[in-house]
Write a structure and sequence with these properties.
By secondary structure, the chain is of the alpha+beta class. 40% of the residues lie in helices and 24% in strands. It has a six-stranded mixed beta sheet with strand order 3-2-1-4-6-5, sandwiched between helices. A five-stranded antiparallel beta sheet has the order 7-8-11-10-9. Strands 12-17-20-21 form a four-stranded antiparallel beta sheet, with no helix packed on it. β2, α3 and β3 form a beta-alpha-beta unit. α2 packs across α7, α5 packs across α9 and α9 crosses α11. The longest helix has 30 residues.
Length: 425
Amino acid sequence: MEKLINELKNTLMNNKFILACSTGSDSMALFNLCIQSNLKNNMIVCHVNHCLREESIQEEEYITNLCKELNIKCYVKKLNINNTKENIEQIARDKRYEFFISTAKLEDCHYILTAHQADDQIETIIMRLLKSSSLRSYAGIEKESKREDIIIYRPLLEYSKETLRTYCINNNIKYYDDITNFEDDHLRNRIRKYITPYLLKENNNIYNSFNYFSETIIQADKLLEKQIKSFVNNKYIIEDNYSKFKIEDYLNIDNTSNWLRKQILFRLLKPYNLSVKQIDEIDNIIESNNQKVINNISNYLCIIKEYGYIYIYKETYKEIEYYQEIKENDIYYLPNNYEICVNDTESQIKSKNKKICYNINISKPFIIRSKKAGDVIERNNKNNKYNQKISNYLTTKKIPSFIKKDILLIEKDNKVVDVIGIFIK
């Protein structure tokens, strides 16, 4: 363990850090290694009591008493999630990291140490392979990552659970086994119980093999990241409630394969947590000969293909229905963050984001309503007046569908006199 002790010293000697300690053999080994590295004064312990087992109380008492004896500050968080019907593992994980990060900020710590080890790495990679995932996810657990500008540091990834357990036994370090880790209820447990032992029989160097696989994927992902940044910086346009890119630019990313394109889609749409099937569906839409496609992927995402662009719209596509008769001077708040201030002789129309503001001369009463099929507006061309269908005008100007669906009109004496937010000469 001399190599690990030197690494801990070099990394943490001048940094305060949080040690996430469950009292299992992994985290207690790391606890002791930090002490052996003369890092006691830099260390703050965080323990999460999940309140799911009778032993949880003993474990909490053990780590709090040990920290008190060694004069190490210790924070404890109790979780109450045993009644939820949702994914308990994921909820507990999220709650743990919320606790670690908030404590790190409170104590001005730059690092959070977790005791993930080589067996965790094998289990994670196999789980990701069993479930379709992105390239980065297939790499499993990274030795260092960042959350809210705090470094999550996992120094034990090269060491097996058996090695850490032996270290605890040889150094008389007390630890607790979580008996739920030996049950077959969860996929991770089944991999740990049945698959990892079989792999070790086939290859006693399996830990190094999986760590090498992980590092290879991470390096490949960094190359991919350069491609993605180039596309985002040069070809990707982000607006308030949508973003867009040219179909031509997307298809030119790689003419020989759509794999790289789909990886870029994964990154662009990462906040929506889409499956491989959904990404494939979007890629097929882009590649298809259909000139116009509107596809509601979820309640928070709509993909629109038209005018040579792909629009990533942050809402479900749904046409609004609105009707308001204006009879009095007042400020009226309209859909889509518009408002109209009505006076005796004119009205001022503006958007809350200040991008649109103009006056229209119109007397009361008048009507503000949503667009209907067949709506026309009167136009002038060299002193000749004629009516043009509003839908045709918007199409000529290549106004995207998600903007057209929300357009409001001002009607006076059964005639459309203004299309709010759209300048028509």
